[in-house]
């Protein structure tokens, strides 16, 4: 075969593999076994009826037309093949059509066939068990990409936020702040585009709804607050919200105790330390953060979060605000100990760029050192860093510093994996798809014996 025909053949094979029929027949999606079982059952029923019909045929006189209806003019082997093939075809057609009729309402928004959707579902079901710890935008960016590889995802989210809509709901209802949870639920939702648009919708501070008490609130925050009141607890409200939104995975709080974040800030002019309270205060102080702590100090981790960490194949310390999103989770009593005791690999995703006030002038190793200064060693096996530092900046948004230089040989006991993970439309943050691919490749490097599929499944429509 000439080389010019090979690309055509490869494309033809790919189309055949992606066809609805081939997906229905793929090994392991749990369809063929039930088709076979239904065929066996139908065969047994037919065999029972055959005993009766044979007895009638031999003992009772029948009109001559039955000679043709029973195909007696054909050899028996031909009759068996013809009738058996027709019956098998009808059974398969009936099972496929019945399954489609039953499941079509649940897959109506999909851009792929029902068979392809089931194939993707089974592939993600076999993906690695991943626990991602963090908060804010950084965690949701990672979740948005990794859900294409696995549905065994647990996001553990900080409850230290006290600003904006989340802070108001926290103060009024005594519930953990829902803002970061809202972003994670939207990122993991099956129909992400619609859910994100709806959950991120924020009521105007002025105008028709400005004086109604809704001004400034995000719809997703109100939704979670309503679910909390309906179900009786914040964690139950999250679980029910996940069911309503068809979330791939789980979103859990690191603790159900609302935390107050305490920061020791350094005055660059006098080098004196000033202690402030509140995540929003620390974020907008504009001073160098030396250390953070939580109150109450003995806040205990949510038990399901501990179980998820201990059972995980990989624990991901997510990118995002180092001091106000990641560390508040790790400071919760029990979280760090569970990470050290876990059987899974422990990977830290370093930010693409520094954050003014929090990590100004930080290098890659400075981020790792900050974590170990607060929590101690033993939490990180490997670091994923951005290796694409030659990116054009159209403009620097508020709060963003500079790109963090890539350093592979930072410390002999620390594995550093470099990838191009930059979002070209916003070079100061990660690209969801690139980051997820980098994480899966890193897990493959660290656990070569595992047979995880590195191909994306169920990519969202643009």
Topology:
Elements: H1 6-18, H2 20-24, H3 32-59, H4 65-69, H5 76-103, H6 114-125, E1 130-134, H7 136-146, E2 153-157, H8 164-173, H9 179-188, H10 192-199, H11 219-231, H12 234-244, E3 250-253, E4 260-266, E5 273-277, H13 279-284, E6 288-295, H14 303-311, E7 314-317, H15 322-330, H16 335-341, E8 345-349, E9 353-355, H17 364-375, E10 382-386, E11 400-403, E12 415-419, E13 422-423, E14 426-430, H18 432-446
Helix pairs in contact: 3-5, 7-9, 7-18, 9-10, 11-12, 14-16
Work out the number of β strands.
14
Structural class: alpha/beta
Instruction: Tally the structural domains.
Output: 2
> What fold name stands as the CATH topology of the largest domain?
Rossmann fold
Radius of gyration: 29 Å
In the predicted model, the low-confidence regions spanning at least 5 consecutive residues are: 1-5
Overall mean confidence score, pLDDT = 81
Reading side by side through the largest sheet, how are the strands ordered?
3-2-1-7-8-10-12
What coarse outline follows from CA principal-axis ratios?
Answer: elongated
- Put simply, the count of helices is 18
Name of the top-level CATH class of the largest domain: Alpha Beta
Fraction of helical residues:
40-55%
């Amino acid at each position: 075969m000439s080389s010019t025909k090979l690309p055509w053949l490869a494309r033809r094979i790919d189309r055949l593999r992606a066809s609805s029929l081939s997906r229905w027949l793929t090994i392991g999606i749990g369809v063929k076994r039930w088709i076979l079982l239904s065929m066996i059952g139908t065969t047994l029923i037919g065999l029972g009826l055959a005993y009766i019909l044979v007895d009638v045929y031999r003992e009772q006189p029948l009109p001559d037309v039955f000679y043709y209806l029973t195909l007696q003019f054909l050899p028996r082997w031909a009759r068996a093949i013809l009738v058996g093939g027709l019956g098998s075809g009808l059974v398969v057609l009936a099972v496929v059509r019945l399954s489609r009729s039953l499941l079509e309402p649940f897959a109506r928004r999909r851009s792929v066939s029902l068979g392809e959707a089931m194939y993707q579902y089974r592939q993600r079901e076999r993906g690695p068990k991943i626990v991602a710890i963090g908060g804010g935008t950084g965690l949701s960016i990672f979740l948005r990409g990794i859900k294409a590889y696995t549905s065994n995802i647990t996001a553990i989210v900080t409850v230290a936020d006290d600003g904006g809509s989340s802070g108001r709901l926290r103060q009024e209802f005594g519930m953990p702040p829902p803002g970061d949870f809202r972003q994670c639920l939207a990122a993991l939702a099956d129909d992400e585009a619609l859910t994100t648009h709806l959950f991120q919708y924020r009521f105007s501070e002025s105008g028709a709804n400005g004086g109604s008490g809704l001004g400034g609130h995000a719809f997703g925050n109100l939704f979670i607050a309503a679910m909390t009141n309906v179900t009786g607890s914040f964690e139950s409200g999250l679980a029910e919200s996940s069911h309503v939104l068809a979330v791939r995975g789980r979103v859990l709080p690191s603790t159900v105790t609302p935390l107050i974040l305490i920061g020791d800030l350094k005055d660059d002019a006098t080098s004196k330390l000033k202690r402030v309270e509140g995540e929003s205060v620390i974020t907008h102080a504009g001073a160098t953060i030396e250390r953070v702590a939580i109150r109450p100090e003995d806040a205990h981790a949510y038990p399901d979060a501990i179980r998820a960490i201990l059972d995980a194949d990989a624990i991901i310390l997510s990118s995002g605000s180092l001091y106000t999103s990641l560390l508040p989770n790790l400071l919760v009593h029990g979280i760090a100990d569970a990470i050290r005791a876990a059987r899974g690999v422990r990977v830290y995703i370093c930010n693409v760029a520094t954050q003014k006030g929090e990590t100004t002038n930080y290098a890659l190793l400075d981020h790792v050192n900050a974590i170990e200064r607060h929590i101690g060693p033993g939490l990180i096996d490997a670091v994923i860093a951005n290796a694409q530092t030659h990116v054009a900046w159209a403009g620097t948004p508020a709060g963003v510093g500079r790109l963090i230089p890539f350093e592979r040989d930072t410390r002999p006991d620390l594995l550093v994996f470099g990838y191009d993970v930059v979002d070209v439309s916003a070079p100061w943050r990660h690209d969801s798809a690139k980051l997820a691919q980098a994480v899966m490749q890193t897990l493959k490097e660290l656990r070569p014996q595992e047979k995880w599929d590195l191909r994306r499944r169920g990519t969202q429509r643009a």
